[in-house]
Every structure is written in structure tokens, then in C-alpha cells.
Amino acid sequence: MDSSLRKLYILGICGRLTGSIAIFAKKKGIEVRGCDWRKNPPVAPMLEEQGIEISLGYNFSDIENFAPDLILIGTTHIRGEAIVEQILASGIRYISAAAFIGEYILRDKWVLGVSGTHGKTTTASMLAHILKEAGKQPSYLIGGVAESLGTSFHFTDASPYFVIEADEYKTSFWDPRPKFVHYRPKTLIINNVEEDHNSVYANLEAIEAAFHSCTLLVPSNGLLVFPANSESVKSIEARGIHCAAKKFGSEGYTGKALKEDFSKFTVLIDGKESAEVEWSMLGQHNMNNGLAAIAAAEHVGVDTFTAAKALSCFRGAADRLTKIGTSNGISIWRDYGYHPTSVTATLKALRQHVGPKARIVAGIPLHWQLNWGPLYRDGLINASTYVDAVVLYANRDKVAGYPAEQFAEFMRPKVQSTRDPAEFEKLLFEQAEPGTHTGT
């Protein structure tokens, strides 16, 4: 740790990423303080347990009184905000969250980065769990909380291994590069690469270029793990890679389903059966996530049998196809995914799990900020083929370039839509009956 860094101030300190940075810095002997609009759980209570003071509101006087050596400015902050303009005018040194992680947290670590437009949190959680169960004592920094890990971050000096969720979103308002370029991974998983973040990336080719930039950071003795059947990843590979590579999915590390919902499968390496996994996870997409984690874990000395045994006791990340309860005979599921491919994979997995005769009602909040046009529309139409009824919620006039009401027209006859969150829940349960599975 830089000995000149004695006092760190963090804007938006109650975020999961910024909060974990605050706790890391505190444990390294740095005096930490920050501000946010609210003391949001679960992060704020953890910060206060560590004696980290949180100021409500963004007041530059609080920064002046604290007199930090360095200010961490999160991704959401932009030019024009009063606090940002005051920081720039003050001349106090500032840094992005991703740059801080790369410079202070990941220095001298064997970084295992998990990237992709979706599937990062689950796959990173699987990989961290495998290394933990194998006695590798990894550090990790992940965007969600897997039940198996109990927390989204863990820092230790007992091991060089560090698993991190490597995000492709821009670093900050002054640094348009993807966050993952700061992490310098030695082991890199690239999972799904599809159109996303259209406010940052003009098209799929721009996203592919961003992911390729991350592969250029992997050293010659490193490892790249990627899906064999992804055309985008093939395009990235064709641009040139400079390390060993392993494939998963349709070749290399493959899986043979022993149950229709993929809750039990055999792991094969180049066609040879190597191990078996029986776990609580559902869907082919999660099997592939597990295969990627197994391949990456092997790079740090974890054999396939040990990795598969660890996955058999893996409990998934919260809000990733999780059954959260039952009410009046209705099973209630929750999943965080918003990308059309992710939504489709989730609903397909749920259908495989409950069988063809069970009734499924899906509640889908439409993401107005994703201006994907036909990609978003057609993806959700495809997802709806796995369910019996759909309730859409949109709180904006337009979604993906279409009037919100048109989504209901696209997906009829099995869909209803509303802009009222209370009515959204009401419509969802009106479509259900005992034995129904509902999900949002």
C-alpha cells in the first residue's frame, strides 16, 4: 500500500463496490470517510461497524474538513455536479473505483477475472467458492452475494489468488475505458459477449474491441477461458490472443445433463468423463458457468474432481433464479437478470425444472434505459415462449425505442402491462393459482 495515502474520502460510500473499498482501506490502516444520500443497508451498517463515518449529502465542506490525500469518485458521478466541480477546482488528487482496485488492492495478486455481458456474478461466485473449498484461501470482490460465500468481498494476505468480477462498463467520466483494463488478470474468463450498455458502446463490434483489449493484458503464462460457440468471442480470438486458451460449452470443457433441468450433469474434458456435479443450480447456462469456473480453477492447481465436488455444495448468488417463498400454494421466484438472453435462459431453466404442465407467470420490468430496439423486443418475445402468462411493468413512455404499450401487443395473447408498481404485483398474482410458479 502506498505509504503516502493516509486519508481517503469516498463519494457514494454506501455502494457495494465503494463500501468494500472503504473496508479494505480501513483494514490497511488508512483513515476513511465518505458521503452518500442515504445510509443504505447492508453496506452502511458494515461501514459503521468498522468505525467509518458516513456523511449524508454531498457537501464539499465535509471534504475540506477531512482534508483527504485522495478522493474516490464513483462511476455514476459526472461533470456538472456541484461536488465534482468543487473537487476538480480544489486540486485534491482523485481516482476512480476501478483504478483504485487495480493500483492498491490487486497489486502483486494473481488476478482471476470473470467478464462477460452477463453471468459474471454467478460465475465469479462459483470460482471463488471452488478455490475456497480447495484450500486456496482466495480474496474476492464480486457484485452480488452468493449464499456459499456469505459476503460479496473478502480480503486476505494469506494467498495470492484474487477473484474479481471484471466489468466492461466505463471506468469514470474522465476515463472511458472499461473497468476491467485496470485489473490486469492472469486468468481471464470471457463469458457471454452481446450488445449492452448502448450509451457507452455504439454496437457489438465496439464491445468486442473492449473485451479484446482485456485479453491483451493477460500475460503469456496466463489463461483465457471462453465459450466455444460464441461468434463474438470467436471474433475476439481472431483479433489475436497471446496466452493459452481453454474452451467450454460445446467443446473442451463440456457437460452432459443427467437431469433435464441440469441440476445434475457429468463434466467432460475433450470428450472424456472427468467428474459429476449435482447441485441446487438450474439451467444449461449455469452448467456452462460452472464449466468455465472449473477450467479457470485448474489454472491455479485445482483438479476437476475437487472443483466438481465443490460445485456440488455451491449455493447461488442472491436474486439469480432463487425461490424466495410460497404463498397460498404459489411458488415465488426472483431473478435479477435484465438482458434478453439472460431472461430467456432463466425462464427456460425454470420451465425445465417445473415441467411442461406447470403454470408459470413471469413479471418482467421493462428497462427503459436500454435502447436496443428489435434486439430487446425480440429477445423478450422469445423468452415469453417458456411461460404461460406475462405481466410487464414500464414506468416510461418508451422502451427500447418503442411505445411501452407496444410490448404488450408484441407478446399477446399471454401478456398484460401496467405502469403502476402496485398494479404490477396485483396483476401478477391474479394470473396465478395454487401450483403456479411466479417470477420477477
TrEMBL record:
Is Ligase there in the keyword field? Answer: yes
Q: Which residues form the Mur ligase central domain?
A: 114-297
Biological processes, Gene Ontology terms: cell wall organization
- Alphabetical UniProt keywords: ATP-binding, Ligase, Nucleotide-binding
Q: Name the source's superkingdom.
A: Eukaryota
Q: Where are the transmembrane segments?
A: none
Listed Pfam families: Mur_ligase, Mur_ligase_C, Mur_ligase_M
**InterPro entries noted in UniProt:** Mpl, Mur-like_cat_sf, Mur_ligase_C, Mur_ligase_C_dom_sf, Mur_ligase_cen, Mur_ligase_N, MurCDEF_pg_biosynth
Per UniProt, what is one GO molecular function of this protein?
Answer: acid-amino acid ligase activity
Renumbered to this chain, the signal peptide range is none
Q: Does the keyword ATP-binding apply?
A: yes
List, for all copies, the residue spans of the domain called Mur ligase C-terminal: 320-435
What residue stretches are annotated with the Mur ligase N-terminal catalytic domain? 8-105
**PANTHER family under this entry?**
UDP-N-ACETYLMURAMATE--L-ALANINE LIGASE-RELATED, UDP-N-ACETYLMURAMATE--L-ALANYL-GAMMA-D-GLUTAMYL-MESO-2,6-DIAMINOHEPTANDIOATE LIGASE
Q: What is this protein called?
A: UDP-N-acetylmuramate:L-alanyl-gamma-D-glutamyl-meso-diaminopimelate ligase
Q: Which species is the source of this protein?
A: Mesorhabditis spiculigera
